[in-house]
Specification:
Length: 86
């Protein structure tokens, strides 16, 4: 009976590690999305400060922040290009 309890503990530790890895991967992606969104929002704010002299303004809203969050710096470039076309 002692051997079965040891095997049960080993099995529980393995299951715990597997479940931990399943939840860590999406958590890392969410943290990366949040960091990119904050960085993109700050970058758009800086572009608005510089562009105020020439009359260029990008709206700082959820769509632009999420676009920069998913794509990073290319997302900021995409928002700038879209601003020229709209």
């Amino acid at each position: 009976m002692e051997n079965y309890s040891f095997l049960f503990y080993v099995f529980c530790v393995i299951i715990f590690i597997i479940i931990g890895k399943i939840f860590v991967v999406p958590f890392k992606k969410i943290i990366k999305l949040i960091i990119n969104s904050v960085f993109g929002g700050i970058l758009i704010y800086i572009i608005n400060l510089i562009g105020a002299n020439i009359g260029f303004h990008i709206g700082l809203n959820w769509w632009t922040i999420l676009c920069t969050g998913f794509l990073g710096i290319p997302g900021v470039i995409l928002v700038i290009i879209l601003k020229f076309f709209i």
